[in-house]
Structure formats: structure tokens, C-alpha cells
């Protein structure tokens, strides 16, 4: 149990590393992270902290809807989210603070690498099933309580995230975070997550 939990946490943090690289590439990010980065720019709060805060919002909705909630389950999620946000902050604002990628092909490669790393981390976390991602957990709970599918709720969150990110960018005259990286992420991330999850199951 503890070994599996430790592995899950490691891959959870590997996912954070991948996300950090996609942000550093500066060619746009995935839909949900586009919202996180835009909010970070507006508030001047670090991206990792914003990511943790928004995930806490989804976590609170999970607690409200989950009739089988346990203290252990949600304490683990809280600790994981805090660690996740801290890793993103450490990588972006300390380790890679002075790294600026300005060559476009290198930006693309960095983004793809980050997406693959993040996808592998997420896929392995989903395989172990010990730690949960608040957004996916919320979508599962909503699916169980309504006639709408998990995919409907998950894509709805992505669409709302994109709209809010674009709205913040236009209103506050920020850079656009919904760009080519968002499109790459849309096609690549889910494939890598599926591969990491299914490939691990075979072994």
C-alpha cells in the first residue's frame, strides 16, 4: 500500500515536471493550464499556487458530491495537490528561472517533451488509482449522478477554461495562452496518458 502510494506520488510530481516544461516552452498550454497561467498573470501569484488553488475548488465540489468520501482519501489529495503546486513553482521560478527558450523549433520540442512527460506521469497515476485528480474525480461523480457522460463534463471544463483564459487575456491585454501548444496538447496528451496506462497494465 505505502509502496504504491509512494510510486503514485512520484508520478504525480513527474506530471508536474511535464506541465512546467510546457509552460516554459511559451507556445501556449493545455486548456486547463491556459486558465491557470492567465490567472497567475493577472494576480501575480505563482502558477503552481494558482493551479493548487483552482484544484482545491474542484476538490471542494468533490467533497460535497461524494457520499462515500473518506478523510484519508481527501487528505491524500490535498497533500498531493500542495506538492504538485510546489514542484511547478520550484521548476519554473528557481530551477528554470533563467532559462529562456526563444528558438521556435526548440520551443515546439520542449512542449512536446513536456506533454509526453506529463502524460506518462498522469497515466501511471491513473493506473495505480491511489491518488486522484480532482477534476477527473468530479466528472466521475457528476456522471454517476446525471445522465451526462464523463467526457461531456471533462470537455466542458476544458471549453470553459479556454473561454476564461481568452477573456482574461483580452480584458487585461495579456499574451494569449491558447495557442498552438493547446492544439498539440489536445491531440497528444490523451494518447500518451492512454499509452502509459494501458502499457503498464500489460506488465
Q: Describe it for me?
A:
With 203 residues, this protein is mainly α. It has one domain. It is 80% helix and 0% strand. The protein has helices spanning 2-25, 31-43, 47-65, 71-95, 104-128, 134-145, 150-171, 180-202. Helix 5 (104-128) runs parallel beside helix 8 and helix 6 packs across helix 7. It is globular, with a radius of gyration of 17 Å.
Count of discrete domains? 1
Number of strands: 0
N-to-C span: 19 Å
Overall pLDDT score: 93
SS field, number of helical segments: 8
Approximately how much helix is present in the residues? over 70%
Q: Percent of residues in beta strands?
A: under 5%
Sheet with the most strands, sense and barrel status? none
The SS-based structural class is: mainly alpha
- What is the 3D shape? globular
What series of H and E elements makes up the topology? Answer: HHHHHHHH
Stretches with pLDDT under 50, minimum 5 residues? none
Radius of gyration: 17 Å
Précis, in short:
With 203 residues, the protein is an all-alpha fold. The protein has one domain. Helix content is 80%, strand content 0%.
Topology:
Elements: H1 2-25, H2 31-43, H3 47-65, H4 71-95, H5 104-128, H6 134-145, H7 150-171, H8 180-202
Key attributes of the depicted protein:
mainly alpha, 80% helix, 203 residues
Amino acid at each position: 500500500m505505502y509502496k504504491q502510494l509512494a510510486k503514485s506520488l512520484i508520478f504525480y510530481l513527474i506530471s508536474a515536471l511535464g506541465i512546467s516544461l510546457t509552460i516554459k516552452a511559451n507556445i501556449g498550454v493545455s486548456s486547463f493550464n491556459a486558465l491557470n497561467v492567465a490567472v497567475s498573470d493577472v494576480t501575480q501569484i505563482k502558477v503552481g499556487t494558482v493551479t493548487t488553488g483552482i484544484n482545491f475548488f474542484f476538490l471542494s465540489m468533490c467533497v460535497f458530491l461524494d457520499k462515500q468520501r473518506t478523510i484519508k482519501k481527501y487528505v491524500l489529495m490535498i497533500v498531493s495537490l500542495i506538492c504538485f503546486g510546489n514542484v511547478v513553482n520550484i521548476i519554473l521560478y528557481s530551477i528554470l528561472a533563467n532559462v529562456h527558450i526563444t528558438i521556435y523549433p526548440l520551443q515546439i520540442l520542449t512542449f512536446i517533451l513536456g506533454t509526453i512527460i506529463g502524460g506518462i506521469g498522469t497515466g501511471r497515476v491513473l493506473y495505480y488509482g491511489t491518488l486522484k485528480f480532482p477534476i477527473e474525480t468530479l466528472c466521475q461523480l457528476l456522471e454517476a449522478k446525471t445522465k451526462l457522460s464523463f467526457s461531456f463534463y471533462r470537455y466542458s471544463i476544458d471549453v470553459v477554461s479556454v473561454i476564461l483564459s481568452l477573456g482574461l487575456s483580452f480584458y487585461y491585454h495579456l499574451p494569449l495562452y491558447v495557442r498552438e501548444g493547446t492544439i498539440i496538447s489536445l491531440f497528444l496528451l490523451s494518447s500518451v496518458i492512454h499509452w502509459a496506462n494501458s502499457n503498464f497494465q500489460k506488465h
